[in-house]
Amino acid sequence: MKIRSILFIVLMLLMPVICLAQDVNNKVLVTVNGSKIQAGEFIRMYKKSVDPGKSLDIDSYLQQFIAFKLKVADALSEGYDTTKAFRSELNGYRNQLAQIYLTDTHTKERLLQKAYQRSLTEIDAWHILVALPQEASPEDTLKAWQKVIDIRERIIKGEPFESVARGTSDDKSVKINGGNLGYFSVFQMIMPFEDAAYSLKKGAVSMPVRTPFGYHIIKVTDKRPAMGRIKVAHIMKAVPPGTDEKQAKLAEEEINNIYKLLQQGASFTELAKKYSDHKESAVKGGELDWFGAGEIISNFSEAAFGLTDTGKYTRPVHTIFGWHIIKLLDKKAPGTFEESRSFLESKINQSYLNSISKKSFVEKLKKEYNFQINHDAYDWFVRNTDTLIIQGLKRYDRALMPDVNLYSFANQTITTNEFANYIEKRGSMVITKDSSVFINSSIETRASDHLISYENSILENKYPEFRYLMNEFHDGMLLFEISGKNIWNRISNDSSGLHQYYEEHKNSWLSRKGIEAKIYTLKSSDGEQLLSSAFNKYSQKSDLDELLLKKFNKKNDTLLTIKEGTWFKGDNPEIDKPEWIAGSHSFSRNGFPSIILIKKVLEPVPLKFDDVMGEVMTGYQEFLENEWNRQLNKKYSVKIDNMVFDEVKKKMKDE
């Protein structure tokens, strides 16, 4: 009994510490119109609002936070969150944000780094294609394999690659390029082809490489550092394939004549507009979009990259399209990894690399959620799936189908009947005659989508950061919409209210105090007494200025200067020093003795509305905000849990 009593007392003493140790982020800090807001959301927004190296009074920020939430409550009460446009935009944002959480980021990052490293190298390669459809039979596949092996053997034994390519390749472009692809870089070839090309050393010939087009033999003839991207203009005289010799000769003469005009100083832009056959670029003075290696025909690209100085142009260059004169406009070196990230990500999302990342993510989810397949149900589908079902021409016999789950994970399942419906509605998506290949592929596709869909549905509960971001965007959209109605639209449309606000506050926007005056300056550092005596002597004379100039400016010199004008406070610190009252005052200007004769003092007056409209609108906005906040505090209840707020303060202080 004694030990129990001691333990009870110890636990009671520790209770406040235990409670404090609980995650304050999940505690309700404030309730606005019945909506409970957790401390974690407040802490996150507070941290985002604090500038680095500066402090922000947390009590004041809580009031700003509550004012924000009151406006959100007002928007909710008016149904802004129920409109189709709002739901569509919010769902669009959620879909974008969810992609970050529905991707194997480590695998994706590794693929991005790999792609970036490849982008720093350009490969010059040749290839031969032996065409073979993806769904080819084993007999046709073997036949194509033997053919491509025989072709490779000829090349290894020393036959020129180009002559072998022209005689054997199924790639139609071989008639034009002899199998030469020119220089290319990452994402410009189908991925198995790219992988093989980048793995080869210079001069090496690959083993057959399988792609959806068939088997390829690849020879790498050069590797070089990436040239970056280039912007050029060109003048073109078209000579399309099949042009007769006379027309081809005429085009060559015309391009040579244009080149001579350029050498004589003619404008490249004007010549392109007048003579270029490439009408799309001609209207822009021949200007083309930025491009890199592999994005434009090889001999054009090589000639363009051969230019070193901006503004220089090539001699006429012949391509399969005709003749070109190319002018260099600008060059960009390859970007850093961070500069290239956005481009690389967009390309990965369009390529099969995205499926690698997705597959890796699905495998993680399978482990996390204990994904299980019912092998008896799986075996039934393999046994009962024939080519008619694969082709979508037949349905499964439900009477013979076991009524069980095919797979399960977390709290999710798919029954055999649901899976059969999926296959029958999906149609023939897998080209195979092998039932096990078909069922494995179908299960993998359905389960992958199911796992990702489930993960997507629980993101708000699983990841607090995701929940906070969604709340922030949700509330930000509502604030924008209702502020537009109550503040910005009124400022734009309520002309009478704006003018009334100006009339009530126009003394807040006054002109600067000014003077109309003359300034007499004697450019003699010790002439203060001389200037003062002469000014006093002649000040009552109507021809004061003439008398002073006559006295000091003898022999056409400019010892004395007289400047008349209007000055305002703040224009000139030296003129600001004398007391601004009518009459004469001595002061120093630019180090010389001076007298300012103030004729009239211009007292501040309210500025015209048009001159201060921007300031009036800002003030009117603040007035509307304050009035709205006052109404919201009356309309909706606010309850702060001060104990939780104290915990928040302690947490922020300790961090």
Describe this structure in words.
- It is a single chain.
- This protein is of the alpha+beta class and about 650 residues long.
- Among the domains are: about 120-225, Roll (Chitinase A, domain 3), CATH 3.10.50.40; about 230-335, Chitinase A, domain 3 (Roll); about 370-460, no CATH class; about 510-600, Chitinase A, domain 3 (Roll).
- Helix content is about 55%, strand content about 15%.
- Strands 4-3-6-5 form a 4-stranded antiparallel sheet, sandwiched between helices. Strands 14-13-16-15 form a 4-stranded antiparallel sheet. The chain has a 3-stranded antiparallel sheet with strand order 2-1-17.
- Helix 5 (about 105-120) packs across helix 14 (about 335-350).
End-to-end span in angstroms?
42 Å
Shape: flat
The low-confidence parts are 1-21
Task: Work out the helicity level.
Answer: 40-55%
Main sheet specs: 4 strands, antiparallel
Q: How are the strands of the biggest sheet laid out side by side?
A: 4-3-6-5
Mean pLDDT: 90
Give the number of helices: 27
Counting DSSP E segments of at least 2 residues, the number of strands comes to: 17
Q: Can you tell me the CATH topology of the domain at 121-225?
A: Chitinase A, domain 3
Q: If classified by CATH, what would the architecture of the domain at 121-225 be? A: Roll
Strand content of the residues, in percent?
15-25%
Cα Rg? 41 Å
